[in-house]
């Protein structure tokens, strides 16, 4: 009996296998190529992103550098502006000084004003002002007389007839200064100092309050034990009371001296009045006390201001004449 031969596969089935195999190979190739393309595209995008970030960083750095340069330029511009303002102010000052110098030279060169005459008038005005200030502030009557004498000598060199009346006023003011005698404030201060000096040399009340030999027997017997004082005022005889009273008297005399220095008549008289009260605390009722109080009243009545209504009239008239066109 014979063996049956195998049945061959149909040709269409084998062709389908080959087709699927080709398709699978083609799909694998396409997948591999797609994966390679994706990898390349991803790398390209990453490179592009990295380049963009680097460019942004570079741009940011350049912007920061530009801002720093801009701030530096702004500071330089501000410094240049400040320098220009300083230079402008200096130029203005130089221009003003130049204008003043030109005006001064024009006044000196003006034939109508006579430069030498203008200088003499300036010197006369300065001497008159110095004399007035020395008299009013320092009480230096002799210095004021010397200054007025120098002003008179300088004014004699001015040959302009319009200043003739000024020389006459100056002569009258000098005559009033010569007739003044002693400056009132200096005289008051001298008499106040003499009073204070004499008061310090005066003996204490105990040395003055001795019992007379012809006194009654009870006064001679009990004069050293019993002291009689007025009821309206207490006399500081010993210890701290007398030292305080002496200190108060010296303070009031110092206040009176300070008021006289500034020509304060009211303050001077008030200080003298308070010194009189302290004097009654230091000395008992006696002819010596009345004499000292009379001296204080005389001091309080002394004038402190200058009885010179013409003081400064020459200087005022000189300024009016020079200010006239």
UniProtKB/TrEMBL annotation:
It comes from the Bacteria. Keywords: Membrane, Methyltransferase, Transferase, Transmembrane, Transmembrane helix. The chain crosses the membrane at residues 17-36. The keyword Methyltransferase applies. GO terms for biological process: methylation. GO terms for molecular function: methyltransferase activity. Signal peptide: none annotated. It holds the Pfam family HemX. This is Uroporphyrin-III methyltransferase. It comes from Lysobacter daejeonensis GH1-9. The lineage of its organism: Bacteria, Pseudomonadati, Pseudomonadota, Gammaproteobacteria, Lysobacterales.
